[in-house]
Amino acid sequence: SMARLPSRSMARGARGVQLRHVSRLTRDAKITYAVAMDAIFKALNDPHRRAILDALRDRDGQTLGEIEALLPMTRFGVMAHLRVLEEAGLVVPRRVGRFKHHYLNAVPLQE
Question: What is the pTM of this model?
Answer without folding.
Answer: 0.67
